[in-house]
Specification:
mainly alpha, MetI-like fold, 76% helix
Length: 307
């Protein structure tokens, strides 16, 4: 198992390298530059700025310079946030993004898991139809549509929650963003767990357990739930990627100071180093989470450890 884990970690290195390389060159191909203004700067100032940030060098040299700094943990200075390095901006925004993503994933697992179990235990009855109808609706509506609707209902209409912004320690600012991120994942998890649990419940060993007189709760918790979670664990990798990418839009809608908002602002302002830094952090988080999913396989199914 440890050899398999080490191989997966080594395979992540070229993946991250390709991701950073593509982002580096695609950002350079985009029209405009980091120091474009409504009023053009004098040529001598533009030349000095380009020399300061090594933008006067050839593209291959800039790329090799960036990789060398990245290997040393240096994400470079921000072109737009004067006086700040990219690592400082990410360190400021990362706690907000992590809190948003963790709460959204926890809420999705809790509610989506309960809905999936409820639907499976009431197969082809009213609760099953109700859960699946709600799940289909939730999957069909993306986060960038859900977010404004939640603001209209709960912030503007009912005035229960703030429409946006961030005050340190005021967790009510995260309620609507977490709901916007979690709702599509709740629907997907409910559908996935329902189908997996229905399949497991048809297995012969579970019919034997029921024949021996075990209560339905013990059959589910002791024998059915663990194998039914295998497809759900597989889904957690893409789900995390979906929450991370969805948070980019949600943070912008709710004006949260997370790294998703920095990514949007950096892309609009051609802040090359800021965009590259956010992509590197997001990529690393997704790779690490997929690695943890692989380890969870071994805990849920001992046959994977043996293999």
């Amino acid at each position: 198992m440890m050899r398999h884990a080490a191989k997966r970690l080594l395979m992540a290195v070229p993946t991250l390298l390709v991701l950073v390389t593509l982002t580096f060159f695609l950002m350079r191909l985009a029209p405009g530059g980091p120091f474009d203004r409504e009023r053009s700067l004098p040529p001598e100032i533009e030349k000095a700025l380009a020399a300061e940030y090594h933008l006067d060098e050839s593209l291959p040299k800039q790329y090799l310079r960036y990789l060398g700094n990245l290997l040393q943990g240096d994400l470079g200075p921000s072109f737009q946030y004067e006086g700040f390095r990219v690592s400082e901006l990410i360190a400021t925004g990362l706690p907000v993004s992590l809190a948003l993503g963790a709460l959204a994933m926890g809420l999705a697992l809790l509610i989506g898991g309960a809905m999936g179990i409820l639907a499976a235990l009431n197969h082809r009855r009213l609760p099953d139809y109700g859960v699946m109808s709600a799940a289909l609706l939730g999957v069909s509506i993306p986060s960038y549509v859900v977010a404004p609707l939640l603001v209209l209902v709960f912030a503007i209409g009912l005035r229960w929650l703030p429409a946006g912004g961030w005050v340190t320690g005021r967790w009510s600012d995260l309620v609507l963003p977490v709901m916007a991120l979690a709702l599509p994942q709740i629907s997907a998890i409910a559908r996935l767990l329902r189908g997996s649990l229905l399949e497991v419940l048809q297995q012969p060993y579970l019919r034997t357990a029921r024949a021996k007189g075990l209560s339905p709760a013990k059959v589910i918790l002791r024998h059915a739930l663990k194998p039914a979670l295998m497809p759900l664990v597989s889904y957690l990798g893409p789900a995390t990627a979906g929450i991370l990418t969805g948070s980019v839009v949600v943070e912008q809608v709710f004006n949260l100071p997370g790294i998703g908002r920095y990514f949007v602002q950096g892309a609009l302002n051609r802040d090359y180093t800021l965009v590259l830094g956010v992509v590197a952090v997001y990529g690393t988080m997704i790779v690490l989470f997929n690695f943890l999913v692989d380890l969870a396989y071994g805990a849920l199914d001992p046959r994977i450890k043996t293999a």
